[in-house]
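Entry for manganese (II) ion complex. Fields follow.
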Amino acid sequence: MFVVYSGDLPDPRRIRQCPGVRDVHRISDDFKLVSSQWKQGRSTVTAGEVDFGPRDFQWIMGPCSVEGEDQLESVAAFLSSQGVRMMRGGVFKPRSSPYSFRGMGLEGLNMFRQVADRHGLGIVTEVMEVAQIDAMVDHVDVFQIGARNMQNFNLLEAVGKSGLPVLLKRSMSGTIEEFLQCAEYIYNVGNERILLCERGIRTFESAYRNTFDVNAISYLQARSHLPVIADPSHGVGLRRHVADIGLAAVAAGCDGLIVEIHPSPDSAVSDRNQTLYFDQAEKLIDAGRKVHALRSSLTL
Ligand code: PEP
Ligand code: MN
């Protein structure tokens, strides 16, 4: 068992002499448990039968929004043909406008679960509020916390207590320090299964939707032991560039990619401009595996 003590520290030499104490570490980071100062080496996070970590690069692919059974079936069949084991798809969608499609809700989640089970896939889906957790927990493999909820501390603690793995997205204006403190909220209630996700930040540049912060991949892995996933879809927001940015993230050493795909992207109900066709996704997977193999063979 470990105990985190913050505030004015007693002399660590005295604590070390107490019965039952094996070791005492002084961790200067504000985020103690997710810090690489506390735990050296990279953690592996298991979600269902899928491992995320240094030995297990993972792909998470699927539509921005769950739209119906035909769409789910088509994506799931494609993913299993590619050896991808995790499928994404939102049933509760945070939308900038209240008039946009806001998701199929629990009906969509039940449909998603059935289709995913038929194809042996795990589900990553966003939870937007504490009240949704109980109804979702038995149908989900990884809870996604969206960028807009990164600092929703009550939600972070509640998903932490749900016991499911959590994919935590960095907010569009969140610093690395803030991001890691948010992960700490989840870890601190006893949930170690956290995936950090860089999904682009808002800068002065308006040519693309967000600016993908490739620095964050390498930097997060230095400051934290948790796996780091990259989201090039929201990171650049333009289909033409998603594969390039995804490959850049793989070359930078990320532990997995989350990418939006759709059987007919131009009719997707959300995020169609950044959503890949299946043939583009297939090329990205193939290239990504090659870049990952090359990267793994290098010692930098
Ligand atoms: C999404 O994954 O579709 C999404 C809404 O992402 P983000 O929270 O990063 O904007
Ligand atoms: Mn999206």
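NOTE: The mean pLDDT is 96.
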